[in-house]
Design a protein that fits this description.
By secondary structure, this protein is an alpha/beta fold. It folds into 2 domains: 148 residues, Alpha-Beta Complex (Aspartate Aminotransferase, domain 1), CATH 3.90.1150.10; 263 residues, 3-Layer(aba) Sandwich (Aspartate Aminotransferase, domain 2). Helix content is 38%, strand content 16%. The strands form 3 sheets. A 7-stranded mixed sheet has the order 4-10-9-8-7-5-6, with helices on both faces. Strand 1 and strand 2 form a beta hairpin. It starts with a helix and ends with a helix. The relative contact order is 0.14. Bound molecules: pyridoxal-5'-phosphate (PLP). Pyridoxal-5'-phosphate (PLP) binds next to helix 5. Pyridoxal-5'-phosphate binds next to helix 5.
């Protein structure tokens, strides 16, 4: 379709006239018509190529049009396109077995959902039923999804206009050494003080009222905040002490983003429930779920679980999930994520600190990194204010535009650029994209003193 101006115009007008978009003032957006995608690249109708450094919404772990995933979906569509959840399905069972096989500890059963938000909804519902308690604690600077309870759990501005949808949620501060809520100066201090704070919140909210604590194992959209050593183990210990269910939200970081099947493996902890979506099948067909510990699963052996979805464990989605496991194993995806993260991304972006005064900090792991942009390294004033919009956000918009002009589609949020390319990106593409971001940072440097 490249160069087909009439086709592009039709896509634009259908979209503008009839598609109602997420998280937007409808008259203020201008969605890019996308004509095609292949591997780590997608194209607009004019034929401009964009190297996708955000993996769409950090879900396209195996890239566009992966032949194994496409074939698996086509094959499944040819044999049984759908089946309702109360019947047993070969491909649904196979994917559940594969997920249980790589999940930590005794997390051996899977409840499938349509995506990440409903995975968190159902995890919370299970925790409430098992504990007989109602309250849930979640972090400021977090995103857990757009549905009623999930948006209440969310600790970012997307919650504000949606309050109160689930009033039994209280927020706490997680570790974030660069902008520590606890005035810490070392990772050890940050771990200790963040855990003391969390314990205070538990006690003051009333431990016997708290059903669950939900934490993104590495906070995603709100900053690629990698927990300091000992923090998640401390959360696990607090949950054990107070009889609270520990839910790890791995919707963004599960399935290889950190070079591990589940991100908790990088920190040596076993939650009671893990929620996943996105990378389980790169989003080719909507799929999410909750991986459930034996203790919680066995509670529901005799108590009926009151929850369900018509498309729970949809065969087309599960077929793409099974194919994902095959590709990960055959192509050594986890090892290549760790290798490219350590050998290519980390040294490259760390070297930028010497050249770009706008770069306050770089942090991350595997194929998941953040560049925190500032006006001043000394004061750490963000390049744009928290939740900036319009003219206030202009410096970040200029940086993003410079990346796009160089053929790289960046993930930006507030004052940060995140680096989250498909896990199958070639080393050459990766270096090319990093060079484009390096060049775009000179735009940010103009605002930094
Ligand atoms: N949890 C996390 C950590 C996420 O990043 C997201 C989506 O970005 C969600 C939950 C919600 O997932 P979904 O959009 O599939 O409902």
């Amino acid at each position: 379709p490249f160069g087909d101006a009439a086709a592009e115009q039709r896509v634009r007008s259908d979209d503008r006239n009839h598609v109602f978009h997420s998280w937007s003032a409808q008259a203020q957006i201008n969605p890019l018509p996308v004509a095609a995608g292949e591997g780590s690249t997608f194209w607009d109708y004019e034929g401009n190529a964009y190297l996708d450094f955000s993996s769409q919404l950090v879900n396209l772990n195996l890239g566009h049009q992966h032949p194994d995933l496409v074939r698996a979906i086509q094959h499944q569509a040819g044999r049984l396109a759908t089946i309702q959840p109360s019947m047993a399905s070969d491909v649904r069972g196979e994917l559940a077995r594969l997920i249980a096989g790589v999940a930590p500890g005794d997390l051996n059963k899977v409840f499938f959902t349509n995506g990440g938000a409903d995975a968190n909804e159902y995890a919370v519902r299970m925790a409430r039923r098992v504990t007989g308690r109602r309250k849930v604690l979640s972090m400021y600077r977090s995103y857990h999804g757009g549905t009623s309870t999930a948006i209440s759990l969310t600790g970012d501005p997307r919650r504000w206009a949606n309050e109160p949808s689930d009033s039994s949620v209280a927020h706490f501060f997680g570790p974030y050494l660069y902008r520590s809520a606890f005035h810490s100066t070392t990772p050890e201090e940050e771990t200790q003080r963040a855990l003391e704070h969390l314990e205070n919140v538990i006690v003051l909210e009333g431990a016997p009222t708290v059903a669950a604590i939900i934490i993104e194992t590495v906070v995603g959209t709100n900053g690629v905040l990698v927990p300091p050593p000992g923090y998640l183990a401390g959360v696990r210990a607090l949950c054990d002490t107070y009889g609270i269910v520990y839910i790890a939200d791995e919707v963004m970081v599960g399935f290889g983003r950190l070079g591990e099947w589940f991100a908790v493996d990088a920190f040596g902890v076993t939650p009671d429930l893990i929620t996943f979506a996105k990378g389980v099948n790169s989003g080719y067909v909507p799929l999410g779920g909750v991986v459930i510990s034996d203790r919680i699963a066995s509670f529901f052996d005799t108590v009926s679980f009151q929850g369900g979805l018509t498309y729970s464990g949809h065969p087309l989605a599960c077929a793409a999930g099974v194919a994902t496991f095959d590709v990960f194993e055959r192509d050594g995806i986890l090892a290549r994520v760790r290798d490219l993260g350590e050998r290519v991304i980390e040294p490259e972006i760390a070297s930028w600190l010497e050249r770009h005064p706008s770069l306050g900090e770089v942090r991350g792991r595997g194929m998941f990194w953040a560049l925190e942009l500032v006006r001043s390294r000394e004061t750490r004033e963000p390049l744009v204010p928290f939740n900036a919009a319009g003219a206030d956000a202009a410096p970040m918009a200029e940086v993003a535009a410079a990346c796009k002009a160089a053929g790289v589609w960046p993930f930006t949020h507030f004052n940060r650029i995140h680096i989250a390319p498909p896990l199958i990106i070639t080393e050459g593409e990766l270096r090319h994209g990093l060079a484009a971001i390096d060049a775009a940072l000179t735009v940010a440097d103009r605002f930094a003193g």
